Amino acid sequence: MKWNAELYDQKHAFVFQYGENVLELLDVQPGERVLDLGCGTGYLTQQIKSLDADVTGIDFSPEMIEQAKINYPEVNFAVADASDFHFDKPFDAIFSNAVLHWVKDHDAMMKCAYENLKSGGRLVVEMGGKGNTALLINATKKILIKHGYSKQAETKLWRFPGLGEYTHELENNGFRVTFAVHFDRKTPLQDGDQGVTKWLTMFGEPYFAGIPEAEKQQIMNEITELLRPDYCEHGQWFADYKRLRFIAIKE
Ligand code: BEZ
Predict the structure, then answer these.
(1) How far is the CA of 30 from the centre of ligand 1 (A)?
(2) CB 130 within 8 A of CB 161
(3) Nearest CA to ligand 1 atom 9
(4) pLDDT digits (tens, 9 = 90+) for 129-152
(5) Architecture label for domain 5-250
(6) Whose CA is nearest to atom 5 of ligand 1?
(7) DSSP 3-state assignment of 218?
(8) Backbone dihedral region of 230: left (phi > 0), alpha (psi from -120 to 50 degrees) or beta?
(9) Which residue, by CA, sits nearest to atom 7 of ligand 1?
(10) CA 92, 114, 80, 41: dihedral to nearest 10 degrees?
């Protein structure tokens, strides 16, 4: 999937604004070597650097890394795969915000994170957890099927694991999970009635592969109307986010 880095910076700032809370969980110490896994356009990477850490941001998307380098030329960034990255020197901490639900091979990602951490190092993550955006996904599938696009309705873009299953996988990969929480966070969408369309355009484009533009707009409008009773409160739209946060230590 090709990312629109400009739209991401302008319209989806909540992704990294909420990430600032996750930074508190990271609790960076001056001089620590930190990897920001899936750094997007680099906002949180730069925040980590401002805490006097030696930080590198990696992202699978060349468009995101190009924008990150423009935004923060003083920070180290590189294009790399979350399930296949290797650094010569291990890290004190690996941090990841709102990214790991995109990863296809979680076992490979955990093995990679483990290999690239110092002994005693920590993996600190927030990602979508079980039930994340379930209303939005179900509404999208329902309207796609109504329009005869059952193949598109089967699109699977994300994995939103439960707390038990994911911490179990972390433990199987040698981590000791010292903190884990799975909570609801109603997340505001910008642009009023256009918010759902903007979100789907930014993150859910593959659901609409091969659908003519005018019909796509119509489908997105119908998804929006289906979600209105659950998503719109006094004109403000919210998505049904459910977050999984954890700290896992390399033993
Ligand atoms: C999330 O942060 O939960 C998320 C973002 C984009 C697509 C799917 C989920």
Answers:
(1) 30
(2) yes
(3) 128
(4) 999 999 999 999 999 999 999 999
(5) 3-Layer(aba) Sandwich (3.40)
(6) 98
(7) helix
(8) alpha
(9) 203
(10) -50
pLDDT the model gives residue 179: 97
Residue 248 near residue 177 (C-beta atoms within 8 A):
yes
Identify the bridge partners of residue 248 per DSSP, sorted by sequence position: 123, 177
Distance of CA 11 to the CA centre of its chain: 15
Helices (H), the chain: 5-11, 14-26, 43-49, 62-71, 106-115, 134-146, 150-153, 163-172, 195-203, 213-231
Q: Are 89 and 66 in contact (CB under 8 A)?
A: no
Q: Ligand 1 centroid to 128 CA: how many Å?
A: 6
Domain range annotation of the chain: 5-250
Lining ligand 1 with CB less than 6 A are: 98, 101, 128, 132-133, 158, 203, 241
Structure tokens at 88: 């010569």
- Measured in degrees and rounded to the nearest 5, phi and psi for residue 74 equal -85, -5
Q: Kindly give the distance from the C-alpha atom of residue 214 to the centroid of ligand 1, in angstroms, as a whole number.
A: 25
- Provide CB contacts within 8 A for 83, sequence distance 6+: 103, 104, 105, 106, 108, 109, 112
CA atoms within 13 A on the CB side of 15: 23
Q: Could you report how far apart the first and last alpha carbons of the chain are, in Å?
A: 35
Q: Give the residue ranges of the chain where pLDDT is below 70.
A: 3, 6-17
Place of tokens 């969980």: 25
> What is the longest distance spanned by two Cα atoms in the chain?
56
Alpha carbon distance 61, 134 (integer Å): 25
What's the confidence (pLDDT) of residue 5? 74
Q: pTM value?
A: 0.93
Q: What kind and span of H or E run contains 106?
A: helix 106-115
